[in-house]
Each structure stands twice: as C-alpha cells, then as structure tokens.
C-alpha cells in the first residue's frame, strides 16, 4: 500500500515540476524521498483515527477485535492492488479514497450499515463527517483549486508574462510571490501536518506563517533581488552555451547526426563493425578482449538496472508519442525563457513543502490500518486514538520512497505532461493553488484528495490558456470516468450486498414487503444501465449519480435483515405491514433506522 502511495500520489507534488523541466525525474525522486520520509517520520503519528475511526465505527467491533484486524488487512490488500492496477495504467487516483472505500467495504460486510459512519453531525463547519463528506469532496475540491489556479495564472500572465520587460517585472514581483508561497505552504504544513504533534488553532498557525513569510519577504528584497538577477542571468548563459556546443558538435562532421563520428555515432559504429568478434579496430590493430563479468557482477548489474528503471525514464517522450498531447503543447503560449527561470525557484520550494505535508498526512492511508492491526494485536481492544510506534512510520516512509523510485514516473507522465502544458510559471500556479485548497480544507476538517485537487488546478491553468486546446480533454474524461464508474460500482454493490445478506440467512419476508423491495432493487439496477448509455442520453449527470448512491445506501441501511431484525427460530422477518414499508424509504439521514416500526 505504501509503495502504491509513492508511485501514484507523490506525483501530485512533483509531477508539475518535472513536467515543466524545472528539475529532472531523478532529482525529483531524491528531493521527494527526503521530504516525504521526513514528513512521515516527523509528523505522521496518530494516524489511525482518520482512517479507522472516521469511516468504520470501532464500537461495532469491540466484541470481536480479531474481525477488525482481519478487515483492516483485507482493506490494505484490496486498496494496494487497486493502486497497482491504476499506476500501471497511468491513472492518477486518490489513495485516500481508495483506502476509505476498502475500510467501508469490510465494515459493511461485517456489521451492516450501522458499522459505517455515514453522515455524523458536527457543531462546527462543515457540520458533518463520515462517508457523505468524502463523496461531496470529489466535486468541490477540484473546482476550488481550479478557480484558484486560473485566477493566479491569469494575474501572472496579465501583470508579468505578457509585458515587454517581463523578466524585470518577475524579479520585482518575486518577493511578493515568496511571501504568498511561504505563507500558504507553511500554514499548510503547520495546520495539516504539525497538527498531529501540536494542535495549534488556525489563527495561531496563520500568525506564525505570516511572521516567517514576512521575514523571508524582507530577505528576498535584499539581498534576494540582486542575487536572483545574477543567478537567472548565469543560468541563461549556461543554457545558451549548451545549445551552441551542441550545434558545434553536430557541425564538426559532414552529415551531422546521421553520419561520421558525430553525435549519432555513425563513424564509430562503422568502425566497430569491421571485426566485432576479433576486436579489430579501424586502423588494423587488435585490442585485448574485454574480461567476461562474473555471475555475481551480472546479477548485480541486472538488479541495478531494474532498481533504477523508474529513475531513468523520460516522461517528455509522451509528447512525441501522442499526437493530441503534441498538439496541445504546440498550441500553448510561449513566454520569455528568462522570465520562466525566475519561477523555477518558487516552484521547487512549493513542491518540497507540499511533499513534506503529503508525507505527514497520507502515510495514514497505509500505516493507519496497519497501526490499527498492531494496536489490537498488542492490547486486544480497539481504539481510534492509539499511539503509533516510530518503526511503523519508518516503514511507511520507506515504502513511499520505494514506490516513487520504481513507478512514480508513470503518473508523473500523466499529470506533468499529458493533462496540460506545464512550464515553471504554470506549474507554480497549479502547485500553490493545490496547497491553498488543501490548507483551507484542512482547517475545516474537510476530507479532500490531493490527486483531484492538483488535477483541478492544472485544468484551471489549461482553461485560461485556451478553452479548446489548453487541456487534454480525452485524458480528463478518462480520469472522470474512473470516479463515475466507482460511484456506480459502489451503488450496485449496496443492492447486491442487500440481496446476498438477506438470502444468506434464508429468511422469509412478508409477501407485500418482499415484492416491493424486489421491485425497488430491480428498478434501480435498470436505472443504472440507462444512465450509462451515453449513446442515448449524451452525458452522465454527476448529481444523478450522487442521488443514486444515496438512495442505494439508504435502502441498504433501512431494508437489511440486520436492521429490520428476524426470528432465528422461524427464520421469518419480524412482521412489517405493507403500510409500514413506505415509512422505511428514508432518503436523508441514516439515523432513520432507529425510527423503523418493529413489533
């Protein structure tokens, strides 16, 4: 599970930086390894409450804690397998929602609707917790980040990037951007990451972040601006020199890249073909044969090649291989490279901060269930506030780093190159909007997905670029389809589980009640098929999907034998009259189960 998080979720922080060519894939893996691991070990404690206590009710398993252990193990295995499949297919999915769905699944199987926290009321905003807010966040969080990134990119483009003296303006705007970047990211780390260690109120976290950001604002004014000016000029001179050297090397030999001994290696390849077996060289001399490597050396080289396979990938070849992505990149507006260079330093810092907080919080997705298993094993009881041993956090951090190094390039390719054109300025706007959205959500305790947020942020930047060519709509539709199919699968699973649980107990419902329930389920299943027939309806209504999910959940909660009750001796459901059946069709709160009329 931790490897899956590293391979799929860490691209949220560094996919835009690598896609913008601010840093290389190998550099991103090294930097992310440092900050993800530091966040996991330093601020990743007390993670079991979020995953276990907020979705599965611990009280439902107190009598048999070994079932809780087994269920958490199944949740880890199923979520880990799903992440492996999604990463292999370059799908950016939410690891948080993956493990939440897995935990909800085993809780439903064991304890029915009462074992799941559906929509518990709270006195403060957002006034609810459990599964329903998670579903709502699927739609709210990407919109929030998309609006923030589009506004930020529009202002940067209007004030700085399109001006004749854009580099000078970017350098003078740099201190203000430093203040915004430091404040947002530090507030994010303190409120969402450090809250696991020191529960500071949001106003205190904001004051601390503002003071630190103000101090760095002054430093970035002087000596920051003169140093930045010299550094940008030096970087541009080095980049220009590399281009000159490459052109000179290609022009040394007639035929350039294609022949002679140029960069293409044509001359050297021809010389090597003279006598590949005997080792004869071009001038007729004979070189001594190279020693044959030992079996251990060959095994080590094979292992090294496999271990570093993910670090040596070029995610930018995705542009050359896909015509739609190449067209999107070609249509993007080109800004002054020297101006873009100013944004590189902001982008790397922002990515580091997001990576640190990601390690502090998303380690819960892997270690939360495992910590619950460990706590039950040691204490034979269930607690949503159990202490997490440091070695568990180290294990989670190591797994995240390993997954990133092995397969992180796949999702980085999707978010950094395939979804929208990324440059340092565009990537910075997307990352800072991601951090801002997560900061606001964390203050109010709203469950959000960093994957969906960065996707929405990139979408906002791309739409400002161009409504027609700024976004890879084909890839976006592919990601949206993942969540639509997920909602449909969960809804259908409720109905199938309801039938399976009722019939497994071999109970007998009263005729009218049974017929009404069967008709309700049959109608709902037919409704699912019609709503996904896009040839007839044209599109899938997301609000309709949410209503269907709510209806299926409420049907399960109110009509399951576990809720209605039955006589174990006669295996007959407790009598419920036909007139009472209508009263059980609750569409709002799961607490309606207590109002069922029983006899």
UniProtKB/TrEMBL annotation:
<keyword id="KW-0592">Phosphate transport</keyword>
<dbReference type="GO" id="GO:0005315">
    <property type="term" value="F:phosphate transmembrane transporter activity"/>
</dbReference>
<feature type="region of interest" description="Disordered">
    <location>
        <begin position="252"/>
        <end position="295"/>
    </location>
</feature>
<feature type="transmembrane region" description="Helical">
    <location>
        <begin position="205"/>
        <end position="228"/>
    </location>
</feature>
<feature type="transmembrane region" description="Helical">
    <location>
        <begin position="130"/>
        <end position="155"/>
    </location>
</feature>
<keyword id="KW-0472">Membrane</keyword>
<dbReference type="InterPro" id="IPR001204">
    <property type="entry name" value="Phos_transporter"/>
</dbReference>
<keyword id="KW-0812">Transmembrane</keyword>
<feature type="transmembrane region" description="Helical">
    <location>
        <begin position="167"/>
        <end position="190"/>
    </location>
</feature>
<comment type="similarity">
    <text>Belongs to the inorganic phosphate transporter (PiT) (TC 2.A.20) family.</text>
</comment>
<feature type="compositionally biased region" description="Gly residues">
    <location>
        <begin position="255"/>
        <end position="268"/>
    </location>
</feature>
<keyword id="KW-1133">Transmembrane helix</keyword>
<dbReference type="Pfam" id="PF01384">
    <property type="entry name" value="PHO4"/>
</dbReference>
<dbReference type="GO" id="GO:0035435">
    <property type="term" value="P:phosphate ion transmembrane transport"/>
</dbReference>
<feature type="transmembrane region" description="Helical">
    <location>
        <begin position="98"/>
        <end position="118"/>
    </location>
</feature>
<keyword id="KW-0813">Transport</keyword>
<comment type="function">
    <text>Sodium-phosphate symporter.</text>
</comment>
<feature type="transmembrane region" description="Helical">
    <location>
        <begin position="388"/>
        <end position="409"/>
    </location>
</feature>
<protein>
    <recommendedName>
        <fullName>Phosphate transporter</fullName>
    </recommendedName>
</protein>
<dbReference type="GO" id="GO:0016020">
    <property type="term" value="C:membrane"/>
</dbReference>
<feature type="transmembrane region" description="Helical">
    <location>
        <begin position="67"/>
        <end position="91"/>
    </location>
</feature>
